[in-house]
Amino acid sequence: MTTLIFHASNGFAEIALEQAVEIRIVGGAISAGGPVLACHTEGAWHVGSQRIERIVCIGRVQVEFESRAGRRFLGPFDELSLADDVAVTRQGVVARYQPREGTWYFDRYDSESDGLVLKPALDPVAA
Length: 127
Hints:
Radius of gyration: 14 Å
Number of domains: 1
Helix content: under 10%
Shape: globular
Number of strands: 14
Structural class: mainly beta
Largest sheet: 14 strands, antiparallel
């Protein structure tokens, strides 16, 4: 199961997602198989008019994105956070959001993409 936790200065909210649900971050909008959950505006993430300091995705996910060089996959990661303009894991920065262009920049591949998809990662089967 994957859980999204929205941290604000006055508390937090959690959304538990079914195992097969993908989290799509296209430009500055996050959705998970339905309406937009949060938007990046004025340099920060917001749910409606509420500023969100950090959005944490907990659950084993793989990051997928498409660039001019083709489709790429990063991970899997057990936790991924969005804060300000950065997507980060315990291993470091995954991508940086570029609000003017509405794209995500991946330092590791020197490439950019319109969005990224967090897909549930299958646990390896013990041999």
